Amino acid sequence: MALPFIVNRDIATEAKRAIAKAAGQIVRDGSLIIIHAGSTCFHFGAHIADRNLRVFTNSMPLAAYLAENGTCQLTVGGGDLHREPGVLYDPQRAPDSFYGSQFFVGALGISSRGLLESHPLLVRFINEMVELANEVVVLVDSRKFAERPPNVALPLARVNRLITDDGLSDADAQMLEDQGVDYIIAETGQVAA
Q1: What strand order describes the sheet that includes 73-76?
Q2: Has residue 186 got a pLDDT over 90?
């Protein structure tokens, strides 16, 4: 079950910050990028807040943070506020005027089936955003490989790259390799299980 954003944001922060730093290294200055909602994506957005980037997000917490703290250009998705998961979304108004070089997305869980979510709204939004970017980059801490929410938001075949922390187990690393997913391990000092 998904925890409220305000709670989840402060869980596994060392891993999420390491993932954010690693993700920041694959973003080129001057890029247009899309950042999804969620706590790891929030940490990533906070990490790149002062970069020369144009950021599109539907995340209310991230948009508020970037408005107060960042210098990057910010475009916020419109629509109704869905307090949990903290996104603005209008299915009648897909943001087809924005196209990003990269879509950074988190997930409640990861399995060989793909990115897993419990909220159908997030599944729909993820599928719309995938069509608006050249590259899909998944940002998830290693705990997410043990979670099994009911809905497949995106099959692993649609993922270009995944960034996780050094708590990734050998079995989960093998699953990613078997699925052909390019992945990056962000070093936190943890020991893999």
Answers
A1: 73-76, 54-57, 32-35, 100-105, 133-139, 161-165, 182-186
A2: yes
Determine phi and psi for 168, rounding to 5 degrees.
Answer: -60, 130
The tokens for 78 are 């419109």
Residue 102, beta-bridge partner list: 33, 135
Model pLDDT, residue 1? 55
Q: Which residue has the tokens 């107060």?
A: 68
Taking the whole predicted model, whether its pTM rises above 0.85 is answered as yes
Q: Show the tokens assigned to 138.
A: 């998944």
Question: Which are the contacts of 169, defined by CB distance < 8 A and separation ≥ 6?
Answer: 142, 145, 192, 193
Calpha distance 96→64 (Å, rounded): 23
Alpha carbons within 13 angstroms on the beta-carbon side of residue 54 total: 8
pLDDT of residue 142 exceeding 90: yes
Largest CA distance in the chain: 46
Confidence (pLDDT) at 179? 95
At 193 the pLDDT is: 47
Structure tokens at 64: 């508020």
